[in-house]
Amino acid sequence: MAALQWTALSAAPTVLLALAIIMPIIMVVNLTRRLFSNASLPNSLPWVGTGHYTGIRGRAKANLSSVLNLRGLLDEGYTKYSKNGQTYVLPYFINGPQVILPMSQIGWLLEQPDDVLSQEQVNRQFLQADYTFLHANLVNDPVHPEIIHHQLTKKINSFADDIADEMRASLEDNWGTDTEAWREVDVYDTMRDVTTRLSTRVFMGLPLCRNRRFLTACSSFIRQVVLAAAAISLFPEVLKPVVAPVFTLYDYIQYRRCSTYLMPIIRERLDRLRDTDKPTLGESKSPNDYVQWAIDHALAKPVVNPMELDPRVIACRFSVLSFAAIQSSVITLTNTLFDLAASPMCTATLSQLHDEVAREIGAASTSNTTTTTSTTTTTPSSSTWSKPTLSRLTHTDSALRESLRLNGFIERGIMKMVVAPGGVTLPDGSHIPRGTKVGVSGYCVHHDDDVYTDALRYDAFRFARDSTGGGGGGGGKKPPWGLVNTSETFMGFSHGLHACPGRFFAANQLKTALGHIALLYEIEPIPERPVNKWFFGHIAPPLGEKLRIRRRKS
Ligand code: HEM
Ligand SMILES: *[C@@H]1O[C@H](CO)[C@@H](O)[C@H](O)[C@H]1NC(C)=O
Ligand SMILES: *[C@@H]1O[C@H](CO)[C@@H](O)[C@H](O)[C@H]1NC(C)=O
Ligand SMILES: *[C@@H]1O[C@H](CO)[C@@H](O)[C@H](O)[C@H]1NC(C)=O
Ligand SMILES: *[C@@H]1O[C@H](CO)[C@@H](O)[C@H](O)[C@H]1NC(C)=O
Q1: What is the 3-state secondary structure (H, E, C) of 110-150?
Q2: Quick check: is 214 in a domain?
Q3: Which residue's CA is minimally distant from atom 3 of ligand 2?
Q4: Burial class (CB within 10 angstroms; exposed 0-12, middle 13-18, buried 19+) of 30
Q5: Do 420 and 501 form a contact (C-beta atoms < 8 A)?
Q6: Which ligand places an atom closest to the C-alpha of 400?
Q7: How many CB atoms lie within 10 A of CB 533?
Q8: Considering only CA atoms, which of 240, 254, 247, 299 is closest in space to residue 273?
Q9: Which residues pair with 539 in a beta bridge?
Q10: pLDDT, greater one: 303 or 61
Q11: Fewer Cβ close by (within 10 Å): the C or N end of the chain?
């Protein structure tokens, strides 16, 4: 017995050593195979980035370019093929090439049913969701779009006061209240704290949304998911379950931290549910937070899936939802602030925004703030930040939408994966196999001078002026295009049936946030905008970069 244990123990280093040697070999073989593969795509489709090579050498070169210069390949493909109505293949070393359709075929792309082309599969692959989302995968939808549609978006207006209150408090905590001295702030870090508090205030309410440890864990969970996903993608399928825990260890720790706070709440709610199986004794008011929405939603289904009521699943879905809500909003807000600060019209634009907000927020913000200097009582009557007011902030809305157009954080516009077993035949007649990705690039359309006049310039009020949506709908009197309106020329939230379900919530938060910033602070112009860095199809905002700000007087 002891001897057996001993052999097992002494064998351990040998096994580890063997693994250490075998794993890199498997990886190299796998990556090399990928480098030269044609992904079973028909020869009729041209590849970009092959230079003057043809065949497998061309494909290998293209594959390498996709790592170093994806943007160059996109530009090449767009001018050479898309603009001429042709389909082309964009190599993507990390998880396989994408077939890019010309703009004229977006209609076809949108019409395909989910059992032929699936958008969700692309997201799952891009984020390697099967490995990075932990227990959220015990159910079908790790991100819960229905809860967003049926609960969050519908109830958002009832949170107007809370959001405004949290916005003001968090902004003052991060940017201070000094009206004399300019202060240098790390934009991404401070905005991350602000958006985390805003989201958490809505999802879980007070006092949890002020708990430092909880907030840190929520905003750190799968923040680096793109990196972890890229690392996992490099391994062949069979090895992924083995290596994934290594790359997701940090996230697992963050998730555990979140769940120590969430679990007791979830358990308590589930217990209460059991108790109230009997007729309720005037159950006064049921709580209005994510945990309750998740439980109500699970119970409302004709057939209740017990997994949906598993506390681990609820806690983990909460964490994934927090990630989706926090990261995308903080990135968008950070980009907008840098776009504003670096635009030549910075000061004029900001004062126009200030005037718009001050006007719409009305007498409340001016007459009721001068009475006292204490920070807590200067809050303008916050129900003024309700839906009707926000909808009148058209310039604030445009400043955000314009930033998302110019500096959206994913390159793809609409991207779907072929899931029909027999593959699919494209409008141009080429047949592509199951597993291939097909779509259009939002980045290229957003930067096309033929679609947006002077497309590379940040023009804050572009969408407030131009009621056709900047090339959107061609003539005719139409309602103005707001942040939430997606189109074939505005794909910052994707477009069609699977456009971001969180965009109404996001627009509400972002406008409340930028509105408060414009109302309460000045931003010093900067000569040059720090660049956004590309990481495969993901475009990161400036991290660690600073702006100088000062609280406005009165
Ligand atoms: C400025 C903020 C945001 C931007 C720019 C944004 C953008 C996007 C985009 C482009 C997609 C489609 C991804 C794809 O499949 O290709 C998406 C999906 C999604 N977003 Fe957002 N998003 C934002 C905020 C939010 C918020 C606040 C939430 C949650 C409250 C959210 C939840 C989701 C979910 C659940 C999906 C997946 C939908 C599905 O698979 O059907 N997003 N988002
Ligand atoms: C792709 O490569 C495979 C094997 O390497 C080959 O059998 C197939 O004919 C190629 N397809 C095209 C369209 O070149
Ligand atoms: C590049 O790599 C991907 C995956 O690593 C592979 O599927 C594809 O066939 C390779 N070739 C090109 C030119 O993209
Ligand atoms: C401003 O404050 C005064 C008194 O404090 C109050 O009567 C008035 O309604 C407030 N104005 C708004 C628009 O809330
Ligand atoms: C934008 O979206 C809102 C809300 O979905 C809708 O009411 C409005 O008509 C849309 N505007 C345009 C121009 O499509």
Answers
A1: HHCCCCCEEHHHHHHHHCCHHHHCHHHHHCCCCCCHHHHHH
A2: yes
A3: 40
A4: middle
A5: no
A6: 1
A7: 11
A8: 299
A9: 534
A10: 303
A11: N
Cα of 483 vs centre of ligand 5, distance in Å, is 9
Measuring from each residue's beta carbon to the nearest atom of ligand 2, which residues come in under 6 Å? Answer: 38, 40, 42-43
Omega before 207 cis (within 30°)?
yes
Separation of alpha carbons 47 and 130, rounded Å: 30
Supply the range of the domain harboring residue 193.
133-367+377-408+465-488+505-551
Q: Is residue 423 part of a domain?
A: no
User: What's the per-residue H, E or C state across 27-96?
Assistant: HHHHHHHHHHCCCCCCCCCCECCCCCCCHHHHHHHHHHHHHHCHHHHHHHHHHHCHHHCCCEEECCCCCC
Q: Which parts of 393-441 fold into alpha helices (H)?
A: 394-407
510 membership: H or E segment, kind and range: helix 503-520
Q: Which atom of ligand 3 is nearest to the CA of 39?
A: 9
The CATH code of the domain that includes 247 is: 1.10.630.10
Phi and psi torsions of 267, nearest 5°: -60, -40
Q: 């530009």: which residue's tokens?
A: 75
Proximal ligand: closest to the CA of 49: 3
| 3-state secondary structure (DSSP) of residue 495 | coil
Nearest CA to ligand 4 atom 6: 368
Closest C-alpha to ligand 5, atom 6: 485
Alpha-carbon span 209 to 213, nearest angstrom = 10
* Helix (H/G/I), strand (E/B), else coil: 283: coil
In the three-class reduction of DSSP (H, G, I as helix; E, B as strand; rest coil), residue 253 is classed as helix
Closest CA to 128 of 251, 13, 263: 251
Tokens of 299: 């119970």
Candidate of 61, 88, 93 to mutate for ligand 3, largest count of ligand atoms within 8 Å of Cβ: 93
Tell me if 473 sits within 8 A of 487, measured CB to CB: yes
Number of domains in the chain: 1
Q: Is residue 101 part of a domain?
A: no
- Parallel, antiparallel, or unpaired: how do β-strands 183-186 and 117-118 relate? unpaired
121 falls within a domain: no
Q: Give the span between the Cα atoms of 240 and 411, in whole angstroms.
A: 26
Which stretches of 234-310 are DSSP H helices?
240-247, 249-275, 290-300
- Residue numbering of the annotated binding site for heme: 500
Confidence of residue 541 (pLDDT cuts 50, 70, 90): very high
pLDDT (tens digit, 9 = 90+) per residue, 249-281? 888 888 888 888 888 888 888 888 777 655 444
Torsional sign, CA 245, 246, 247, 248 = positive
The predicted pLDDT at position 476 comes to 42
pLDDT range class, residue 376, cuts 50, 70, 90: very low
C-alpha 380 – ligand 4 centre gap (Å): 9
State the ligand closest to the CA atom of 133: 1
pLDDT at 520 (0 to 100): 94
Instruction: Give me the numbers of helices (H) and strands (E) for the chain, helices first please.
Output: 23, 12
